[in-house]
Amino acid sequence: MLPYISIGIFIDGGYYAKINRALKAQERSIIRVRSLFDYICSRLAMEEGIHVSDCQITEAHYFRGRFRVKEAYDKHLLYNERKFEDTLIENDVIFHYKHLREVDRDGQSEVVEKGVDVWFALEAYELAAFRKFDYVVLVTGDADQEMLVRKLKALKIKTVLLTWNLTDVDATSPLLREEAGHHWELSEIMYDSPMLKKQLLYKLREPAVTPLGDMF
Predict the structure, then answer these.
(1) Which end of the chain has fewer CB atoms < 10 Å from its terminal CB, N or C?
(2) In whole angstroms, what is the distance from residue 61 CA to residue 125 CA?
(3) Residue 170 has pLDDT above 60, yes or no
(4) What pLDDT score was predicted for residue 208?
(5) What is the pLDDT of residues 127-161, one digit of tens each?
(6) Is the separation of the CB atoms in 158 and 136 below 8 Å?
(7) Strand-by-strand arrangement of the 135-139 sheet
(8) Where are the domains of the chain?
(9) Could you tell me where the beta strands, DSSP code E, fall in the chain?
(10) Which CATH architecture has domain 13-130+139-203?
(11) Rounded CA gap, 192 and 181, in Å?
(12) SS3 of 61, please?
């Protein structure tokens, strides 16, 4: 049993956005960041047999590609982006952005996000080694992060993979799931705990007449 737990949280913004889009479509809701963090602390405290006050999120980081300001403005995304960033700031989350690019392929416009997953892995590994977290929580389903989990385990850092599958097709890589020491699938957890679902989700108002974008 650890007398005190230091936690580092690393959020794959693209994966997180997919969860929120599915929640908007199915529940007219989005994730409450503060409630999600509280759940992480309370569950780890329970598993380690310590008081929740001895569980501290030392750092939380969010990684995402985003459009340049002119493109975001044209796509009606600026309001949603700033509103979401306000939520991150209020919860002491450090955000890391790289610019998205749009390219034409076979007459179709395609959004390209380069390097964010590599940045996510490098930053998570470097900070985990430097800060010496007791636990690292990864909010992602990307198979590319399998080696990150393996490296974190080599540092003897307990790693939690936190996922939320809301579609018919499982968005979590089986290899990543097998590699992680702990896997929390929130769709399954909340199926057995409706009260937790109510706690973690923020109910949205009816959509405005002018669309504000659908990035978050």
Answers:
(1) N
(2) 12
(3) no
(4) 45
(5) 999 999 999 999 998 888 999 999 999 999 999 99
(6) yes
(7) 93-99, 55-66, 5-12, 135-139, 158-163, 182-185
(8) 13-130+139-203
(9) 5-12, 29-31, 55-66, 93-99, 101-105, 108-112, 135-139, 158-163, 182-185, 201-203
(10) 3-Layer(aba) Sandwich (3.40)
(11) 22
(12) strand
Please give the Cα distance from 201 to 20 (Å, whole number).
Answer: 10
- Evaluate the CA torsion angle 63, 176, 37, 125 in order and state its sign: negative
Give the total residue count for the chain: 216
Per-residue pLDDT tens for 82-135?
Answer: 999 999 999 999 999 998 877 766 666 667 677 899 999 999 999 999 999 999
Residue-wise burial string across 60-69, b where 16 or more C-beta atoms lie within 10 A, e elsewhere: bbbbbbbbee
Tokens of 94: 């450090």
